[in-house]
User: Fold these one by one.
Assistant:
Number 1:
Amino acid sequence: MKNILVTGGAGYIGSHTVVELINSGFNPIIVDDFRNSDPLILAGIEKITNKEPLTYKIDICNKEALEIVFKENQIYGIIHFAAYKAVGESVEFPLKYYFNNLVGLTTILECMLEFSIENLVFSSSCTVYGEPAGVKEVTENSRKVKPSSPYGNSKLISENIIEDTFTANKHLKTICLRYFNPIGAHPSGQIGELPHGKPNNLLPFVTQTAIGKHEKLTVFGRDYPTDDGTCIRDYIHVVDLAKAHVKTIKFLENEAEGLNDAFNIGTGKGTSVLEIIKKFEKISNQKLNWEFGKRRSGDVIEIYANAKKSFEILNWKAELTVDDAIKDAWNWENTLKKFNR
Ligand code: UD1
């Protein structure tokens, strides 16, 4: 059984990927320092899979600590999630973001070279496209621009660091997955997103408002040039996203030569903020307390994926719908209530 090191494996996307790796016969090894994740999630992984993945409580920026993991285990590939991801916070504390996200990545890359590990899958983001000029459906070849936040810029710089490392080490196999907007939770209700503090992302804010953690949701902007005046995103179920990582590892297993490439991981469909609210109200059978507010600075108006390349090369496509994701997110929010979270 191949060992796959999953940094940030107790986090939102990481934990769902750990489950899918186990389901597909891989042996995930988690590295997570739990600064933005919760041991509750490890218990959830075990309930779903009946397996307790080996877990190291380590900060990936600590190279000496990280080396121990590579000395103790034969690692086939790395899926690197561990990073900060709050856009607003990154604007306030850019150096915190650049340090953690870039030192984390370079430490991982150094260990790959030191311990002769070839395979890397990196968590990137559609933020590298910025606001699409003209057509809102972006392909991997669409123009990349400097993202409007240090968080987003750390993803673009990370992609460049990976490319340069590949250029100097052509035996490496490195893939950047550009996620669109991950939402939802595992359908079992055992794992899901556990935002620390007030969530920044739309769906956690919706479910938390509906359950009474916040008084009301503010919809940021009502006069964008879209059909209903609100921003449009490509929301993708986190389980589909998790499966994309497994497909990527399987693709790398079949590639003889080194390579560096990037793939869009989205559904190919855009949904507006108001549509998300309407869908949520229908699925949860309750009215949501919301109001229009000012535009949020740095927001892209409209973007969605062209995911053809992922289908053609990785043999991956999204199978679940936005409705499935909202249903699972709402189920997860209700589960959290039972845990008093
Ligand atoms: C942002 C990043 C994305 C990143 C993700 C990580 C940009 C442009 N996008 O996604 O790259 O991977 O965060 O967390 O930097 N909204 C409301 N009210 C709320 C919250 C959100 O109306 O309380 C709206 C936003 O204005 C936006 C949509 O909901 O139109 C989605 O927002 P969000 O979930 O925060 O994701 P992005 O900003 O698209």
Number 2:
Amino acid sequence: MITPDADWWRDAVVYQVYPRAFADTTGDGVGDLGGVRSRLPYLAALGVDAVWLSPFYPSALADGGYDVDDYCAVDPALGSLDDVDGILRDAHALGMRVIVDIVPNHSSDRHAWFRAALAAGPGSPERARYVFRQGRGEAGALPPNGWTSLFGGSAWHPVGDGTWYLHLFAPEQPDFDWSNPEVREMFHDVLRFWADRGVDGFRVDVAHGLAKDLSDPLPGSSSLSMGPVGSMDAAPPPRRADGTDPLFDRDEVHEIFAGWRRVLDEYDPPRSAVAEAWVPAHRRALYARPTELGQAFEFPLLESPWCAAAFAEAIRENLTLAASVGSSSTWVLSNHDVIRHTTRYGLPPGADAVAWLMSDGGDPREDRDRGLRRARAATQLILALPGSTYLYQGEELGLPEVPDIPRSALQDPIWVRSSGSRKGRDGSRVPLPWTSTGPRFGFGPERDGSATPLPQPSWFGTLSVEAQTDDPTSTIEFYRSALTERRRRFERAAMCSIVEHGEDVLEVRRSDGVRSLTNFGDVPVPLRLAPGEVVGLSSDPSAPIPGDRAPMLPGETTAWLFDNGAGVTHTYAADPQK
Ligand code: GLC
């Protein structure tokens, strides 16, 4: 059972479920809410505190469900509102909270409001809920300006009457006009709809996009592209980083979220929220203010190369910024928009991950063993940090990206809109393998012998939940142990200092007595334990060995050192001399 706790989100481990790829109960090849519900005991046993459900709303799937037809309903292919209620009941009974995804920048073009806007014609109040503008040139044949969409191509779509509407993403995702009070009211009602049902918090999609200044035709603005980790909006940041960019991270957006906070605070306990805002670091904390969403995703670590100095810098910055507004940090290494971190760390330094995807994973060569070794070490490192950790489904299996999905099966709008020059994000959205063999590796029954829409590779079974369970060296057991120890040993309000030892070793020194040491190098380094300290969990199951008094920390490994009960004096980290 969950216990009342207004601050649960501050140090929660949140597991992101991408419902269509999680578990399927009907055999149509698409994951559903029944599948999520049936696997809640698995998530509870894994040891997570909360589940974040990516969109399950009715959708034509022009953008994986982030094109929402109705914010207060469930896609019939995924289930019904009863299933959401069932998930809430079961999750709460199992001690887990539930967060849902809210997509406020745009609806889908099938949303009742957008249909009404098209029917009502230019100048109507219905159109004023979206961003329609007269086209340029004769009869408005040209787009109002040269803005391009994040998925490629123009950000404007003509509707045949000389006007065009704005879509920062796919044409099927018309942007709302947030200066319209009706839009604000509608989303307040959406928040209440889910909060009334018992949802504990919200993940706010493209939070930095809502406020726009259409009078400012900054040339080329919004032509954001795939970032270094394969995400579509990771880089570059808004052209102007001072709140005056016409499309992103404008100062007015904060007034919108202050309104949201008032709604979230109508509940007891207040509902939590976390902003997805790809903005420069100094602007991010604004979204996380207690008077706004309370928390914001911090992506710099996700974008950091495998290097102690880069990690140290990103971690220090995150901790400082979150603390500056009374929030807590958010640690993320994978999500449904980026190349899985096992793969990122397995590619050679500086490799162009997007080009690697285009080569079907052939060039450069991915070193999967090394990638997994580093991924486990990085995960254990972020789990040692104060704040909350967001895990993405399948990372507990060490799943790498699937780079060779047949081009004919790709679903991400990025693929089509970039004219086949970028594959997009499907490689992280392949249905999970639950069993080693059998139909769809246990993802769901096979109704017609066909593959799932994004086909699972033949090697998926070897990484399945079944294959890894009870193997003490497996990644899933490593996650279970790490989450268990985190619960058992870590205090919520713990502070930490980040200490670098030489070029390769990073220490997280927590005020609750736990130390975490990560060796980013290849060469083992000696660990000298402080009096009263013992080796606890290691991301390398073979070393260092608990109980060893002169242990070594292997390369690309994280180890946690615990107080054995006698009281620790922190005098030593890893040997800087190596
Ligand atoms: C967010 C989502 C991403 C989606 C985009 C447009 O960045 O995480 O998956 O494509 O918003 O809604």
